[in-house]
Amino acid sequence: MTDKRRTERYLPIVGWLPRCTSRSIRVDALAGIALAGLLVPEGMAYAGIAGVAPQIGLYAALAGMFVYAFFGTSRQLAVTATSSSAAMTAAVVAPLAAGDSAQYAALVSTAAIAAGAMFLVGGLFKLGSVAEFISKPVLKGFVFGLGLTIMVKQLSHFTGISRGTGAFFEQLWHAIKSVREINPVTVMVGVVALAVLFLSGKYAPRIPSALVTLVLGILAMKYLGLERQEVEVVGNIQARLPSLKLPRANPEVLSDVIIGTVGIVVVLTAEALATGRLFAAKHKYEIRPNQELFAMGAANLASGLFGGMIVGGGMSGTAANEAGGARSQISTIAASLFVALTVAFLMPSLRLLPEAVLAAIVIHAVAHLVDFKQLKYYAQIKTGSLWVALTAILGVLLFGILKGLVLAIGLTLVAVMKKLSAPQESVLGRLPGTERFVDMSWYPEARPIRGVLIVRPNAILFFANANRVLNHVRGLLSSAESATRAVILDLEATPEIDITSVEMLAQMNEELMTAGTTLYLVRVPNRVADLLGRSGLLQKLKGEQIAADIATALESARDIVPV
Questions:
Q1: What is the pLDDT of residues 263-281, one digit of tens each?
Q2: Which one in 66, 278, 390, 479 has a CA-CA gap of 20 to 30 Å to 318?
Q3: C-alpha–C-alpha distance, residues 264 and 85, integer Å
Q4: Domains in the chain: ranges and CATH
């Protein structure tokens, strides 16, 4: 590999930037300005979800997008704070900050640095496939519950009631009990803001609806005298660019922050790679998952060191970027520069932004997470996916975000184990007039070989299903109409086995020998054969008991079975 290729592999901007033309740069820059129009209000809103000052969400957008542009392989991915990262960050940090706002902000930035380190390690050890560890129904259920949790937490800002605590149902019950505290004017402001967001999204999708809503909210506050109606505003916001520094977090809780951040990284990996792949497929190019982890790591390190929060590749920002015409990361570089200008010069003008408008922006931003259409689809296909998704939703709503995430991952593992341990063996027979051996449940015309049982496990063999295979063979032998003198185990569809499976095969061989039956292993994959050899089982079997195919095993069995 040449030095240029090696540099381009780890710093993709070196490859695509020289190919940009003045026209493409202009188009991408305009897309970036439009993207910033979405991300400025959303960044402030996500900071509110995380429980930190509005500018911290903007610091994250500024640093995350700019740094990702150098290292990422997606052309459209917008790496900023997301609703998922914000909500999960709050769940990790809030119990550790002990009500200290300065410590809270320091822990949020520390979590971003920890996430960055984890992403970098994942890229270094090529763990891009970790995104597949959470099944789609479980992930959909988790983010559905996450969306509802975020929405209910906005009720205090949206209605003017006092803020509640706890998981979804506790917050909802608090809102119901506090109905007498509702400020009608605050509700009206929030409802109008929501209407503007949803209607402009439907009828004028190219307009930066979040920015328009933000500006209208400030103007309404300024000229309609809403402060006299006790409508809460964001208030004074620090107006300066961030500086590079290590956050001063309490060292006693660092281990808790790191442990809590692991779950956030898993979810953001799945979210970012799914989003990146979606738009890569649409524009006919490929992303490199392990490089994406490296890029996400660099973006999070930058965000944390500049006082920001955890960033990820969110769907809403990326979709807006692509809809604006972005075809390279020039757009996110332009967007980050626009955000920097906002932070440096425009923050004081946001002082009059109503909290209800910011809550409406949050609700609009997470509305896509509450995906009833996907649940309806799971119900239609009737695979059990609906119940898995509903369990994940209830886990988040009942136990909170972090415990809900643990439950969601646990559900994935249970689903995998159940799938792998479910009966998947085929009993094979010969198609008349051929030497083809097929599953007799699918080919009724296939015929068994007299005195021979041919079984094919259709999955890896491991501790959860090894004994099931043995018991299945025992059951088939006991129900056979005539004596079975040979059992052929076709391992073509079994690429891996573990030590429990080796012991099971040894036990099967011993039992069959005692009963006067010979075991044959055919089409044994190399990795399986290596383990059987290291375990000593191959040495116990005679040479003819290991065959290249079923026909060869049948030839060896002719001496003991009238085939």
A1: 899 889 988 888 888 889 8
A2: 390
A3: 6
A4: 3-415 (no CATH), 425-557 (3.30.750.24)
